[in-house]
Design brief:
Number of strands: 0
Oligomer: single chain
Shape: elongated
Helix content: over 70%
């Protein structure tokens, strides 16, 4: 049967919720493998925002009388957990973490841009507002990463024992 606009909206909210849970695991991994105190502070700050995003999306699901999908949650968790063993053994952790976080932030921005437009079509002003808030925070964190590429390059070289 054809899904309704509301069904599709709920699916996208659920996907955003699962994406944020995966991001929490990714941030935990990055925090545990990053040695630069300033970068750790930025990661911890974004982890707090991400926890707020999880609750925001859970609230939007509840507003539509829906629950988070266990299947999507497990999928997000498995994806994030698959990265953890790699993080523990690979070198060049800070630069790779920066690259991974930058890519993840842009995936989140894309997901919320799509969700926002579906919420607009469904006349769900609260979800539109939630998306605007999250998009602004995701873009701000991506900008923090973007402003530190020279620092990440330096840390990467230092972690590899290269002097430049």
């Amino acid at each position: 049967s054809m899904a309704t606009l509301r069904d599709d909206l709920v699916r996208h909210i659920d996907e955003a919720h699962a994406m944020e849970l995966g991001m929490l695991r990714l941030l935990d991994s990055m925090i545990s493998t990053t040695e630069d105190p300033e970068i750790v502070r930025e990661l911890e700050h974004h982890k707090i925002e991400t926890q707020e995003h999880v609750e925001l999306m859970k609230g939007r699901l509840a507003a539509h009388a829906a629950q988070p999908s266990a299947v999507r949650q497990v999928g997000g968790l498995l994806g994030a957990l698959a990265k953890v063993p790699l993080d523990l053994v690979r070198g060049d952790k800070t630069a790779r973490n920066a690259r991974d976080a930058y890519a993840a932030e842009h995936m989140e921005i894309a997901g919320y841009e799509l969700l926002r437009r579906i919420a607009e079509r469904a006349a769900d002003a609260e979800t539109v507002r939630a998306c605007d808030q999250v998009i602004a925070q995701e873009k701000a964190f991506a900008e923090v990463i973007d402003a530190n590429w020279d620092r990440f390059a330096e840390l990467s070289l230092r972690e590899s024992g290269v002097t430049a």
